[in-house]
C-alpha cells in the first residue's frame, strides 16, 4: 500500500514540475515574441537598426562597445556636413563591404548628378581624418540617431555560442533557485 501511495505522489509531483516548466518556457517565449514584434513592426523601432561599434574611429563621440542606433527612414536630401551616417564600404578592398559609422565631411554631385559623400572619422586622434573613399547614396544605410553606451560588449557576448549557453544556464539556475525558495517558504508556512 505505501508503494502505491508513493507512486501516486511521485506522479503528481512529476506532473506538477512538468506543468511549471511548460508555463515558464511558454511565458518566456511569449515575452521574446512580443519584443520581436515590437522591434520589427512598430514603426519607430522598425525604422532603426543597431550596430555594435568595434573600432575607435569615432571616439569619444561613439566609443568601442557602444551600440549606434541608425534611422533607416531618412531623407538623403536633408543630410548635411557634420551628420553621422552608417554606410557600406569595402575597407580592405578584398573582402565584402563592411558597415562604417562616420561623419559626413563633404557632399558633392558627380558627372551623373548623383550625390557623392566624403566621410571622416573623429579627428581627435588623427590630423588626417578624412577617409580615402567616397560613397554614393546607395551605400548609405541611414543617419545616426543615438547611442547606447557599453551595451555592445554584452550583446557580442550573447551572440557567441558560449554566451548563449551561459544565459540559458543562468535562467535555468535562477528558476530552480526560486522554486527551491518557494518550497522552503511553503514548508515554513505549513508548520
Topology readout:
Blueprint: H1 2-41, H2 43-46, E1 48-52, E2 67-71, E3 84-89, E4 98-109, E5 115-120, E6 130-136, E7 140-148, H3 151-159, H4 161-190
Antiparallel strand pairs: 1-2, 2-7, 3-4, 3-7, 4-5, 5-6
Helix pairs in contact: 3-4
Poorly predicted segments: none
CATH architecture assignment of the largest domain: Ribbon
Largest sheet: 7 strands, antiparallel
Strand line-up across the major sheet? 1-2-7-3-4-5-6
CATH topology of the largest domain: Umud Fragment, subunit A
The percent range for helix content is 40-55%
How many domains make up the coordinates? 3
> What characteristic shape results from the CA principal axes?
elongated
- CATH homology superfamily name of the largest domain: Umud Fragment, subunit A
Mean pLDDT: 83
**Gyration radius, to the nearest Å?**
26 Å
- Number of H/I helices: 4
Q: CATH top level of the largest domain? A: Mainly Beta
Instruction: Tell me the β content.
Output: 25-35%
Characteristics:
alpha+beta, 191 residues, elongated, Umud Fragment, subunit A, 4 helices, 7-stranded antiparallel β-sheet, 3 domains, single chain, 7 strands
Please provide a written account of the structure.
The chain is an alpha+beta fold and 191 residues long. The chain has 3 domains: 1-46; 49-148, Umud Fragment, subunit A, CATH 2.10.109; 160-191. It contains 4 helices and 7 strands; from the N terminus they run ααβββββββαα. It has helices at 2-41, 43-46, 151-159, 161-190, and strands at 48-52, 67-71, 84-89, 98-109, 115-120, 130-136, 140-148. Strands 1-2-7-3-4-5-6 form a 7-stranded antiparallel beta sheet. Strand 4 (98-109) and strand 5 form a beta hairpin. Helix 3 (151-159) crosses helix 4 (161-190). The longest helix has 40 residues, at 2-41. The protein starts with a helix and ends with a helix.
Amino acid at each position: 500500500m505505501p508503494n502505491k501511495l508513493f507512486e501516486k505522489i511521485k506522479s503528481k509531483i512529476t506532473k506538477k514540475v512538468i506543468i511549471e516548466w511548460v508555463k515558464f518556457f511558454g511565458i518566456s517565449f511569449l515575452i521574446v515574441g512580443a519584443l520581436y514584434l515590437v522591434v520589427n513592426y512598430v514603426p519607430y523601432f522598425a525604422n532603426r537598426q543597431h550596430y555594435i561599434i568595434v573600432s575607435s574611429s569615432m571616439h569619444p563621440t561613439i566609443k568601442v562597445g557602444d551600440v549606434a542606433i541608425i534611422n533607416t527612414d531618412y531623407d538623403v536630401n536633408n543630410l548635411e556636413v557634420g551628420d553621422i551616417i552608417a554606410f557600406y564600404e569595402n575597407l580592405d578592398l578584398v573582402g565584402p563591404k563592411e558597415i562604417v559609422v562616420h561623419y559626413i565631411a563633404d557632399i558633392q554631385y558627380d558627372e551623373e548628378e548623383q550625390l557623392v559623400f566624403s566621410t571622416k572619422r573623429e579627428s581627435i586622434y588623427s590630423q588626417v581624418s578624412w577617409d580615402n573613399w567616397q560613397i554614393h547614396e546607395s551605400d548609405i544605410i541611414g543617419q545616426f540617431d543615438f547611442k547606447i553606451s557599453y551595451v555592445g560588449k554584452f550583446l557580442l557576448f550573447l551572440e557567441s555560442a558560449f554566451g548563449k549557453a551561459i544565459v540559458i544556464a543562468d535562467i535555468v539556475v535562477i528558476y530552480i533557485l526560486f522554486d527551491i525558495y518557494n518550497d522552503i517558504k511553503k514548508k515554513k508556512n505549513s508548520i
